[in-house]
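DUF2851 domain-containing protein: structure tokens wanted.
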Amino acid sequence: MKENFLHYVWQYKLFNKLNLKLISGESLQILHSGLSNKNSGPDFFNAKAIIDKILWYGHIEIHVKSSDWYQHQHEEDKNYDAVILHVVYEHDVDIYMKGNKQISTLELKDFIDSSITEKYASIFQQQTNWISCEKEIHTINSFIYQNFTERLYLERLESKSKFIFTLLENTNYDFEAVLFQLLVKNFGLKVNGDTFLKLATSFDFSLIRKIGANEFQLSALLFGQAGFLNEIEESEYQNKLKKEYEYLKHKYQLNSLGKNEFQFFRMRPNNFPTIRLAQIATLYSSYRSLFSKLIHLENIDDFYELLSTGVNEFWEEHYTFLKSSKKNKKQLTKSFIDLLLINTILPLKFVYLKHRDEFEETNFFKLLESIQPEKNTIIQKFESLKISSKNALESQALLQLKTNYCNHKKCLSCSFGNTILRS
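Answer:
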């Protein structure tokens, strides 16, 4: 028996509420089970109960065994002086309050329907499945599924917002600067994302405002800061970039990263750091005030049109500075733009709209539902359990479900778990 299960049973009154008796034999009537407390102190605040025909207001404390009261040293904590009822699964010792008064205790085990405890144990306490309810999750009806996936996605947005707010505070709420930092980070994908962010924050964004419209200067800045221009020049283009970077480095007192911080190993050529930096340079030299343009777009095709950038002539025939290759425009693909939308643009737009008190769920969800779902091992595993993602909102929600609920066995806080348990 787990204490969080008893919390769940108490909160949702999943026990026989008729003819309740305390261990002392006194009658008990629950008028209000109290408000769940997620912080320190009693488990439920401001409960209301009639004990032996006397009305009581106060707090509720819940334990598996009565002796847990002493195990947790509640007798020494003033926060528990206002507890009016001790709810336990099994009563094993009498508990006394100040003044040598025995606390009113309800033993729940004889009042809980055995089918609920059996289902809880069979589904949520086993350890072998990928997720606890993998045999039942496909039975969730569409209404509950849609409502909870929307909530899960908003939770994921809120979680991503914390990092965005940190960047905003560091830039004095410069949304253009934060967009640049986030985009650069996500151009690096998982392998190079942190290093790309380090690159994006290695100089002040005011420098992008000054030289961003010049693709050559911007390329010199990005490749120079990344350390790709420190080697012996193998091409006229690289030599020109190096000279330009030396000028920028001296003028703006720049300190570059090391080339070895960027990973090429086991990466597809189109994901090489050199290609992603070249694409960033082309994108930012094509548009002034990119954030202002992106924030007002509502149609997915408009995002694709704006972000479908390629590379300059040199990079059309190269993947690195050292070796030429077959000509390829290396435009951003729709699938890559989808990742930028999911992980950068929409989370930042969410923060911006919330910051201005202009966030409206319907239009936001509509845009997300027009984006294809991600493809990864977690989404594929859910598909094997007959849970398919039709769009990015659902795939993001399932990622949130797996990482924040299933992995931590928070089944009783999950709408799917609730539904399965009560079915």
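The chain has two domains: 3-112, 152-369. The beta strands are 20-21, 27-32, 35-36, 44-51, 54-65, 83-90, 105-107.

Cheers.
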